[in-house]
Design brief:
The complex is a heterodimer of chains A (about 475) and B (about 350). By secondary structure, chain A is mainly alpha-helical. Chain A has a domain of about 240 residues. Chain A has 14 helices and six strands. In chain A, strands 1-2 form a two-stranded antiparallel sheet. Chain A has a two-stranded antiparallel sheet with strand order 3-4. In chain A, strand 3 and strand 4 form a beta hairpin. In chain A, helix 1 packs across helix 7, helix 8 runs antiparallel to helix 11 and helix 9 crosses helix 11. Chain A is globular. Chain A starts with 6 loop residues before the first helix and ends in a 28-residue tail after the last helix. The C terminus of chain A is likely disordered. Chain B is mostly helical and about 350 residues long. Chain B has one domain. Chain B contains 14 helices and four strands. In chain B, strands 1-2 form a two-stranded antiparallel ribbon. Chain B is globular, with a radius of gyration of 20 Å. The N and C termini of chain B lie far apart (about 65 Å). The N terminus and C terminus of chain B are likely disordered. The chains are: A mainly alpha (about 475), B mainly alpha (about 350). Chains A and B meet through helix 2, helix 3 and helix 14 of A and helix 2, helix 3, helix 4, helix 5 and strand 2 of B.
């Protein structure tokens, strides 16, 4: 079985599948960790019970999301070796240390303080517990720093040399870490994580407000989430635009694919809104386009010339249709988030924030929009840099492990079955927790389970 | 040839070995608890067993990520050769770790009627991960087929009687760590049962160490020379002697019911076995084909990381120790149950 399959295509499918599942959990837990830190700070500062109730409510959900992020992340850290060994041998000296630093500065910090954060409130006191929550939140951000630096180096390699064994080696670590696309990608991804979390929190709040608009907890979380959407969605759109200009400078071929520019336009390129990119024919079918707007957006001039894919050898073309459409899905989600933020601002001004059925229903419908945008965005950037793993330098086909197709096909099938069963169950458990409204005397993760250690009755004195 | 020169690749070999050993120390007992799960059918016992590691399990597994990430960074060639060679055991281990890892959180999120739903995944995931790690160890020791800078064997090369033996040995060892952990962390009938299991598992462990020790020299003539000829024997002879002494101490601590001793003595037994493996492999990182110097990253990569390791590992050990300290002491059933 599978003898006739292409092992590299299977390895790419496996990486895409496991990565897509994995990114969903960190995207949620980066934002949620910061949100928990804010809730605990507000509780310590104001002493209002609603904040500790919300903290405990989201902490239980965080525990499940974080656990799934950890186990799906271990898979990623070994998959470079198992399935992309040629890549690992060649790039290990450069991106290996970045990932090692991620483990040393972020993973240990998160894992070391997570136990105290989840189960330790009554054991260590409020201040130390808050410190633990802060460490976990900071850990998630440090983790994003290193892994996005590594990814960005693969997109826009800098500060490297190549040794006699054909390995990339660092010539300048500062240039490696702060490579040209890194600051843009970091800002764009962290904001995406915050928005993703805010949209989930907002949807859960809206869901409970729809049944009873007077619930204290859901009101607080809905209001906080809508402020995030109002303020951060426009910032994110601006950050995304800046990232796009950076990509135009360093990976122009990716922009050609995102825009569907098969042909060069010496006198101003159109903005193709929709259409079907036909890779073989080298044109966008059924295109709906606005003349010259593409040049205006990307070059800030109506008549600026723009090169198209016809200036690039065909073997260096990324898959245009996927890049083109995933980009439009991401942008569409971003515009919907902006709309939600503006609508909530209007409702807030009118005094109907917690009552407007239209707004509440819209917020519920937007629950998955952050995840969809994150996935679509990553598909855009990862597909758009094909056919390379290290942009312009190392081709994807030359990066894979020397494995037989049946080996990779078997593991791919195993991952698909296990991921859907395990993470499907996890998502159901999270949805169940979200379906119950946060209430007076909400317990943390240790409250509804037997005690974690002797002589301690967690949270009893607090309820 | 053993060389006394301390260079940066040697330092990194010890750092990676240290990370893997800390992983074995920390995740070994919690995988062992999963392996022993079917022997504790009572729900309340299972709750206590899970709770005794719930606050620390993902810190424990982080050392495995450091082992993998560190290997890629410091010895990319070894990582690139070994991972495809160990493809099936590695994938099996990852899948095992997924099942058992999520069980810690999922167990408390099920409805009461479905509470046992994650017990079987917790047990089988732990068993699979432990077995796969042991098999991987055996597969590394017996060596892999390397051509140029690539693994050149098939995807079932790892499967031999020797790798099965090391797989079983690791399962037994982790189970013993789990049993002695329970002796330390629990009370009453649960602890008594753990004592009982520890006896049985200790004898099994001694048998397994013996079997692996006898089989290893037959894999390669180099292993035989390392262990039984001058001057290697000066270094190697104390290892089996120390194993015998620690075993005797372990038997005594079990007989006298010193709750805190068996766990740490078992760890010592692991450390000695690990040192034995190190003596066999040195200076190869892929036995008989790639030495640590051939696999090493350029010096500037290794030095760049060494700064981080020097500062951060002590810090990590510090706050990890603090987390264990916060959750110190015996775990009781039912207290705090609402």
């Amino acid at each position: 079985m599978f003898e006739g399959w292409d092992a590299v295509v299977l390895a790419r499918a496996q990486f895409a599948f496991t990565m897509s599942f994995h990114i969903v959990f960190p995207a949620f837990s980066i934002g949620l960790a910061s949100y928990l830190a804010v809730l605990e700070a507000l509780w310590l500062w104001t002493g209002r019970e609603v904040f500790i109730n919300l903290f405990n409510y989201w902490l239980k959900i965080f525990a499940v999301a974080f656990g799934m992020g950890v186990v799906s992340g271990i898979v990623m850290s070994y998959q470079f070796g198992t399935n992309w060994s040629a890549f690992s041998d060649k790039t290990g000296p450069v991106i290996g240390p970045l990932m090692a630093y991620e483990v040393l500065t972020a993973f240990f910090l998160e894992a070391g303080f997570l136990g105290v954060m989840l189960f330790g409130l009554e054991r260590v006191g409020h201040r130390l517990h808050f410190l633990a929550t802060l460490m976990v939140a900071v850990g998630t951000l440090i983790s994003a720093f290193w892994i996005l630096s590594a990814n960005s180096w693969m997109q826009t390699p800098a500060g490297y040399a190549i040794n006699a064994d054909g390995q990339f080696i660092a010539a300048d670590w500062f240039k490696v870490i702060f490579n040209p696309s890194f600051p843009y990608r970091l800002v764009h991804m962290v904001l995406a994580a915050y928005l993703t979390t805010a949209l989930v929190v907002g949807a859960v709040g809206a869901f409970h407000l729809l049944r009873d608009p007077h619930l204290a907890g859901p009101r607080v979380m809905f209001s906080m989430a809508m402020w995030m959407a109002t303020l951060v969605a426009p910032i994110q759109i601006f950050a995304g635009d800046q990232h796009g200009l950076n990509t135009l400078e360093h990976q122009p071929v990716k922009i050609m694919a995102m825009e569907g520019h098969f042909h060069s336009h010496p006198h101003g390129a159109p903005l193709i809104l929709f259409g079907w990119p036909d890779q073989a024919a080298g044109k966008v079918k059924y295109a709906i386009e606005v003349p010259k707007l593409g040049s205006l957006v990307l070059k800030h001039s109506l008549d600026a010339p723009m090169a198209g894919l016809d200036t690039v050898p065909r073997e260096n073309w990324p898959p245009v249709a996927i890049t083109f459409w995933s980009f439009r899905i991401m942008v569409g989600m971003g515009l919907l988030m902006l709309g939600l933020g503006l609508l909530s601002l209007w409702a807030r001004w009118r005094g109907t924030l917690y009552h407007s059925r239209l707004l509440l229903m819209f917020a519920i419908a937007m629950a998955p929009s952050g995840f969809i945008a994150v996935l679509a965005g990553w598909i855009t950037t990862e597909t758009g840099r094909q056919p390379f793993t290290v942009y312009g330098l190392l081709r994807t086909v030359d990066s894979a492990s020397p494995l037989a197709a049946p080996a990779v096909a078997s593991s791919l099938i195993a991952f698909i079955m296990v991921y859907f069963a395990v993470f499907g169950a996890g998502v159901i458990y999270m949805l169940r927790m979200m379906a119950a409204a946060p209430h007076h005397g909400e317990q943390g993760p240790s409250g509804d389970t037997p005690a974690r250690a002797a002589g301690i009755t967690p949270a009893q004195g607090r309820a | 040839m053993m060389t006394a020169a301390i260079d940066i690749a040697t330092v990194w070999a010890f750092i990676i070995a240290f990370a893997v050993f800390v992983y074995v120390v920390m995740d070994g007992f919690d995988l062992g608890l999963g392996i022993l799960f079917p022997l504790f059918p009572k729900k309340s016992d299972r709750d206590v067993i899970m709770n005794s590691v719930a606050p620390v399990w993902d810190g424990n597994e982080t050392w495995l990520v450091l082992g993998g990430g560190g290997l890629m960074a410091a010895f990319p060639l070894a990582y690139a050769v070994l991972m495809p060679a160990l493809y099936t055991p590695m994938i099996a281990m990852l899948i095992g770790l997924i099942f058992r890892g999520v069980a810690f959180e999922f167990r408390w999120r099920t409805r009461p009627s479905e509470r046992n739903r994650w017990d079987i995944p917790f047990f089988s995931g732990s068993l699979l991960a432990a077995l796969a790690q042991g098999v991987a160890l055996g597969a590394i020791l017996q060596g892999v087929h390397v051509e140029a800078r690539h693994y050149a064997g098939g995807w079932w090369d790892w499967l031999t009687p020797f790798s099965i033996l090391t797989g079983i040995a690791v399962v037994i060892g982790y189970a013993l760590l789990g049993a002695t952990w329970l002796v330390m962390k629990t009370d009453g009938p649960l602890r008594d049962k753990a004592y009982h299991l520890s006896w049985f598992l200790l004898f099994a462990m001694i048998g397994a160490i013996g079997a692996v020790s006898i089989a290893t020299p037959f894999l390669h003539i180099q292993y035989t020379q390392r262990w039984f000829s001058w001057p290697g024997i000066v270094l190697t002879a104390p290892v089996p002697i120390a194993v015998a002494v620690v075993t005797a101490l372990l038997l005594r601590s079990l007989a006298r019911k010193r709750d805190y001793q068996p766990f740490f003595l078992t760890l010592t037994l692991f450390a000695l076995s690990y040192a034995g493996l190190g003596i066999s492999m040195w200076p190869y990182i892929v036995p008989q084909s790639i030495t640590i110097w051939q696999a090493a990253s350029p010096e500037n990569s290794q030095i760049f990381m060494l700064f981080g390791v020097a500062v951060l590992i002590p810090l990590i050990l510090g706050y990890t120790g603090w987390a264990y300290y916060v959750f110190r002491g015996k775990v009781e059933a039912g207290s705090g149950y609402h």
